[in-house]
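Weekly modeling sync, notes
Attendees: S.R. (lead), two postdocs, one rotation student

Agenda item 3: backlog of single-chain predictions. S.R. asked that every request posted to the team notebook include the full sequence so nobody has to chase files. The rotation student volunteered to paste the first one in as an example of the format we agreed on. Action items at the bottom.

Example entry:
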Amino acid sequence: MFYRPEDGHGLPHNPFNAIVTPRPIAWISTRGKDGSENLAPYSFFNAVSYTPPQVMFATTGKKHDRDGTKDTLANIRDTGVFAVNVVEYAMREAMNLTSGPWDKDVDEAEMAGIVRAECSQIDCARVANAPATMECRLTQIVELAGTANLVAFGEVVGIHLRDDCIVDGIFDVSRYQPLARMGYRDFTRVTEVFSMSRPGEQVI
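Predicted structure, as returned to the notebook:
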């Protein structure tokens, strides 16, 4: 099968959503300039550089009360900071609950029974028991083609690691099983890890 996206695919559901998988999920917490709290998941997300450490996420769509975007990016645009919380399999239901199209005055963390803690380097809350949280300062927002397609880049200025996830000096993802987004309504989790060395790489 071949199709051009501009012509349509003719299938019951869009296959593009299932091609780039699995996708890590950024469970992003932000604080509005009015002090309101927000927590929402984004699966158009990844790390993009080591030095300095930087991440990106994309938001698509908009809310009527948020000037062409959603609560998360609106808060980041106003404050310049955000926290990326890693989602573990055990928190899948809470994460999913926070993905709803809630009004901007709804505190998703409170609604989902999530305990918050303050970040260290930025004025923002984080998910207290997340396996890891990256505190980020906004570096730029890029507008993409289409309607309300925006990408935010942030420099990681602080990292929280849950102690039980550090094993023999390594952040061990098998301890918490990261949740990832597949296509359609499907998700997956990391339950098996294997290692490979690059050609010519010295194994220490």
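Discussion: group reviewed the output briefly. Helices lie at 16-19, 71-79, 92-97, 108-111.
Action items: rotation student to repeat for the remaining queue; S.R. to check formatting next week.
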